[in-house]
Amino acid sequence: MKALVKERAEPGLWLTDVPEPELGPGEVKIRVLRTGICGTDLHIRKFDDWARHTLELPLVVGHEFSGHVVEVAPGVEDISVGDLVSGEGHLVCGKCRNCMAGRRHLCRNTVGLGVNRNGAFAEFVTLPASNVWVHRVPVHPDIAALFDPFGNAVHTALSFPLVGEDVLITGAGPIGLMAAAVATHVGARNVMITDVSDERLDLAGKLGVSLAVNVSRSSIAEGMRQLHLREGFDVGLEMSGNPTAVRDMLASMTHGGKIAMLGLPAEEFAVDWSTVVTSMITIKGVYGREMYETWYNMSVLLEKGLDLSPVITDRFSYRDFDAAFETAAGGRTGKVILDWSDASSSGETGGEPAGATTNRSA
Prior knowledge:
Elements: E1 2-6, E2 14-17, E3 27-36, H1 39-46, H2 49-54, E4 59-60, E5 64-72, E6 84-87, E7 90-91, H3 97-100, E8 111-112, E9 124-128, E10 132-134, H4 141-144, H5 147-157, E11 166-170, H6 174-185, E12 190-195, H7 198-206, E13 211-214, H8 220-226, E14 233-238, H9 243-251, E15 253-261, H10 273-278, E16 282-285, H11 293-303, E17 312-317, H12 321-329, E18 335-339, E19 357-359
Helix pairs in contact: 5-6, 5-11
């Protein structure tokens, strides 16, 4: 089968033929239809310091995907051949204290799809049945491929009550955009999002935010004045990992404000802990998704009309992966999708979400 592989310890990815994965006990085999390019995939392609110390090569990369089930192992229940599915890319041990207590998202022994085991940028992928999410309500394969990053957005956004609250989101990448859509959808009073990319801030406008601020030209304080906020934001969703954004968020919270942090900083930086203490600010670190409460939340949000289609801006054939990765690395787009449907015999092509740009080689 065709797969995108990190073959060598150097920058780049290679489209090559590899053996199809064999179905193991308790597993499900999936014919991949769509995949999404994640920041983790960009790190792997670049082969930065994190990738050099994390990966064992060769490795089939990718963890954001949707596809149709083609085979299930004996004893697997509630999953059938033909089901449209997404996958939870964090594989847990099931034996540690947190796993045994039902807190699987806190497993200390988590294995990452496309990082610690062969991933989904391929014609076929296998996963334990417990990591397979069946879409019981109709959903487009493009949107189904977003369930991993959408889960990050939902986990972060729903960390604290949002109804009637004023929400600040720092970072308008794809996950920040989806978090903005969630916050607006569930009843936040004001949702302000910041970034330095006009293109991404324009996308935020399509998702219904109250105000999108380019902090290279304006400030959070000016945005607060435009929204007539006198006491600061009630909830902060930090999606950038940028030290300046974190500091500005802390300075913009009301007393008793709550911050959920998903953005991963590249290095340590100083924080004004006196403000955290004297303003009695709660800070929660967020990683991945709650298994599987977040997945239920995602499905219900879509069922109740949440529209993520504006987040998808570019769509490529898997054969044009280099152009797709360059587009994603540019930091000016929403989500970039790779289409694998013509690599399989399923014949499923689906439609394109409204507003998406289709890029194909001649």
